[in-house]
Amino acid sequence: MGSITPPGSALMRRLRRGAPGRNRLVLAAVLFLAFLATFAVDWAVSPSAEAATSAPSASSTPASSSPAGSGAATGPCTVSPTNGCIRGTILDSDRKPAAGIDVDVAGAGGFAQTATTDDSGRWSVSVTTAGQYTVSVDQSSLPRGQYLTNAADAERKVNATLNANVGQIFQLSDQQGATTTADTSSVSAARAWQQLASGIRLGLLIALASVGLSLIYGTTGLSSFSHGEQVTLGGLLAYVFANQLGWNIWVTGIVVTLLCAATGYLQDAAIWRPLRRRRISLTQLMIVTIGLSIAAQYAFQYFFGASTVRIQQGNPETVTFAGLTLTVQSYVAMAIALVVLVGTGLFLAKTRFGRATRAVSDNPALAAASGIDVDRVIRFVWTLAAGLAGLSGVMLGLVLNGVNWQTGLQLLLLMFASVTLGGLGTAYGALVGSMIIGIVVELTNLVLPGDFKYATALVILILILLFRPQGIFGRAERIG
């Protein structure tokens, strides 16, 4: 944030603008109603959106098991309150996907399933009982000239839970017994390099949503707990358009971003502006965002179910570059996120409306006294924030190969930690904080198993509040 120019200066005179026209509200309402009509038609012609995703072609989905019993795995695995997934990837000595390898999963009660890796090296098995399972690779099915990096690691014990994924990665080598004493789960330079790339990817995607969250706080002082549901909305809308209606993924991304932006516009028009005019306290407004978050989660679960849905049914292709193996969707998502974030930064720094936004964020009362339409700026911020969060949901759904009703809720802690670390109310701080959080969270996975890595964000948040509550780019005290 820069210093605010006194009233009557050239900057403030350029920022004076009139009240917004009603045509924008009409346009947003038309877009939202068009989406509702499309959504209603789609669900009317489809008996069950969830059923449509449960029967993709065998050649386009990774293998998984039937819910119980024994035998070969059939159909995709999706998590639900009554179902969990044990899944993983097998990479060859060149860190490319290894197809046609059998993975056996055994558990209590005679449970035994076999999954075979697909063209992307992925496999998955469905379980309906939480507990410990044994995952073993059938070494006789390995490609010629390929061996497990650690032969003793062919069999692993995993603890599976319902409504959750448990991941396992097996690495192959072209030398038999070359590293039989090594543990594939140990820290190595190659694994750290791979996790660093994953952290940069996660940081960029979190930043898309965090920048909007920070702008909302900067202009209104409100911490929006419903912002995560804007991310979920973006992913689920992308599923409807790209998967159910068969739209092109690029067209889907643009339309979803615009629709999510329209929901932000309508939220401020219908909820936040009337509440601001009644001078409702920030604590009461925050409680409203919590209630809106819960209502949105139940709405998502009602319409889409509790299972994870995929935006694109085809298995993602992987590309190895500079020793890193990521999906094509990951590279594209990172590029789009970087371009959008740079564009947002330039808009805030170089344009008249961007300077007005920064002025309102720095001192709303002084900005209003200088002729800036504060309500108009806040309406724009809600619109921009919702659009960026929706785009983040689309990108996350593609990168994570799925989205469900609580995707945004799971990321909300990371977003708040990013905003707090960078400095409350600063867009640039949210970007830097997101990158730090994303990298630290993924690197933590080198030593902590599974989703324990997300607890790192909570630790960072506590340390920030203890030692530097204003964050990296924040100021200990505002003057104005």
UniProtKB/TrEMBL annotation:
Residues 51-76 have a biased composition (Low complexity). The chain crosses the membrane at residues 247-265, 285-304, 324-349, 380-400, 412-440, 452-473. Belongs to the binding-protein-dependent transport system permease family. LivHM subfamily. It is found in: Cell membrane. InterPro entries: ABC_transp_permease (IPR001851), BCAA_transport_permease (IPR052157). Residues 51-78 are annotated as: Disordered. The keyword Transcription regulation does not apply. Its main location: membrane. SUPFAM superfamilies: Cna protein B-type domain. The keyword Cell membrane applies. Gene3D superfamilies: Carboxypeptidase-like, regulatory domain. PANTHER family: AMINO ACID ABC TRANSPORTER PERMEASE PROTEIN, BRANCHED-CHAIN AMINO ACID TRANSPORT SYSTEM PERMEASE PROTEIN LIVH. It is a multi-pass membrane protein. Keywords: Amino-acid transport, Cell membrane, Membrane, Transmembrane, Transmembrane helix, Transport. This is Branched-chain amino acid ABC transporter permease.
